[in-house]
Design a protein that fits this description.
single chain, 248 residues, alpha/beta, Rossmann fold, four-stranded antiparallel beta sheet, 9 helices, 10 strands, disordered C terminus, binds adenosine-5'-diphosphate, binds magnesium ion
Length: 248
């Protein structure tokens, strides 16, 4: 990764976090610690609360109990723009780009919190990192391939030089080879360059390969947690996530 794209990571912590909709918790008493230079991944079946957890960290879904902090600053229930300003870049599972707008316009929107003169500079750094986007600046985001669209979604978030990246299923619907490249080259690359990465990923095997630590959610709770090699040795994990039939 180019030096100017990366920013030293910050620690993102959730402590006994509960969050949900209409005052009813979906995730319960979750502890997360994501640190610079590392990838922490979250896996779990559909509906286990992975997206809800990420959304509550970044201020999109209300925190009902516990706390969230970044770099020692409490961000519990702070508005999403405030969380972004403090260096947390969030790429949602859906609605990750503005389809009717061009690639360039999407990147400009990503830089909306920047002073005007910095937008150009940042865009150049982002395009250095995702050179593929350079050739499609005037194309509508809705016309991109799945892999290109995810690069744009991440590029949009990188416009603000985040120190923490929160990514919700970035490889959903991508061809296996594209997914592997995104995970092993770009996402692992963010962490290797010093950023903090918190990743929700449905490809458990691929997630383990690039992770330093993995949490397994079930029914809104952490049911297992450990280093990849620990989980790969855990019969329950292997049966549920690495066995042939259960994995998508
Ligand atoms: N906007 C919402 N309002 C009410 N319930 C929701 C909303 N979004 C998700 N849920 C519920 O929260 C639970 C967890 O969903 P989600 O966090 O999307 O899980 P995952 O990302 O692991 O598939 C599901 O039962 C889902 O129906
Ligand atoms: Mg989800």
């Amino acid at each position: 990764m180019s030096a100017e794209l990366s920013t030293a990571g910050q620690v993102l912590t959730a402590h006994r976090l509960s969050a949900g909709y209409d005052g009813r918790p979906i995730v319960h008493e979750i502890d997360v610690e994501a640190t610079p230079g590392r990838v922490v991944s979250i896996v779990g079946p559909n509906g286990s609360g992975k997206s809800t957890l990420l959304k509550s960290l970044v201020g999109v879904v209300p925190v009902l109990g516990g706390s969230v902090s970044v770099g020692g600053t409490d961000i519990t229930n702070r508005p999403p723009e405030r969380v972004a300003t403090l260096g947390v870049g969030y790429v949602p599972q859906i609605d990750d780009v503005f389809p009717p707008l061009t690639v360039k316009e999407n990147l400009e929107i990503g830089g909306y919190l920047l002073p005007r003169h910095q937008v150009h500079e940042r865009m150049a750094a982002v395009l250095e990192f995702f050179p593929r986007l350079k050739q499609m600046m005037t194309r509508k985001a809705g016309k991109l391939s799945g892999g290109e669209r995810k690069m744009l979604a991440m590029g949009r978030v990188l416009m603000l030089s985040p120190s923490v990246l929160v990514l919700d299923e970035p490889t959903a619907n991508l061809a296996p080879l594209v997914a592997t490249q995104l995970l092993e080259e770009y996402i692992r690359g963010f962490a290797d360059a010093g950023s903090t990465v918190l990743l929700v990923e449905q490809r458990a095997k691929a997630a383990l390969r690039i992770s330093d630590h993995t949490l397994v959610l079930g029914g809104g709770r952490v049911v297992l947690s450990g280093r990849p090699e620990e989980l790969a040795d855990n019969p329950v994990f292997v049966e549920s996530f690495l066995g042939g039939g259960a994995r998508r």
